[in-house]
Structure formats: C-alpha cells, structure tokens
Amino acid sequence: xxxxxxxxxxxxxxxxxxxxxxxxxxxxxxxxxxxxxxxxxxxxxxxxxxxxxxxxxxxxxxxxxxxxxxxxxxxxxxxxxxxxxxxxxxxxxxxxxxxxxxxxxxxxxxxxxxxxxxxxxxxxxxxxxxxxxxxxxxxxxxxxxxxxxxxxxxxxxxxxxxxxxxxxxxxx
Length: 172
Known about the structure:
The protein is α+β, with helices and mostly antiparallel strands. Helices cover 38% and strands 20% of the residues. The strands form two sheets. The chain has a two-stranded antiparallel ribbon with strand order 1-2. A two-stranded antiparallel ribbon has the order 3-4.
C-alpha cells in the first residue's frame, strides 16, 4: 500500500512539473490560460485567486479526484469563434507565432527533462548512501554480486587499511 501511495505522489509531481511547463510558457507569451488542474474526474477543490486590485483572476487552479493526469486549458488551443474573432482573440494561442505555439506545446516535455537533470545533478552533487543490506530481499535476482573499489582518497581510512583501487569484495 505504501508503494502505491509513493507511486501516486511521484506521478503527481511529474504531472505537475509537466503541466507547469505548458502553463509558464503560455503565460510568458501572453496567452490566456483558463485552467491549471492536476488529476481528472470529479473536482476535489478549485480556486481562482484575485489579483492585486481584488478582481477575480482568469486562471482556475484545481485538484481532481483521479491522479493519473492533469491539464492546462489554454485559450485558443482548440480554435473556435471566440478564440479567433472574440474580444480576447489577441491572447489566443491560435494568433501567436508558430514557434511560440511549438514552445508552449513542447514546454511540458522540456520541463520534465530539466526536472530530471536537476534531480540527477542533485544526486551526484550531494551523493547518496545506500546500505548494502538494502538489496538483501532481492539477492535472488542478482548473479555474482560484488563490490569493486573504483576510487580512493589519499591517506583515507580505506587506504590505511590496505584497500585499493580495483579490489573486489564478493562476500556480500
């Protein structure tokens, strides 16, 4: 059950980052965004914040019940009479330059790639310690498990103990 909850949280984060890419690029190019929602199906809650003058904003933010997706409703993404000829037609996606439309549509994938890069960079920068026994329950899936020393610091406890680069420990 915990694994399912963790999966849903990770999925929600990835969906949020993806939709945020579409949202931010649309806003950057002056395109009206009518909705930013995470999830599908019945609405859990939604709100439309007010601007600094107390006027209700244009974007409704919300969370829906089924966490397997999300969406950003971009004005003019599916052209109709209002988005092509209406009062606010200049803020419609259909009236933006093609390169801007492409960036808005590709923004989600771009943000997911940037997010992955940030996570991997953080992992490599800060490092991560994984105890060997963390894989104990999975030993039947490994053949010939072993540890190979690939680097060692000068005057480190490992070097003083006689452990050197290339040493192999196979008694895991």
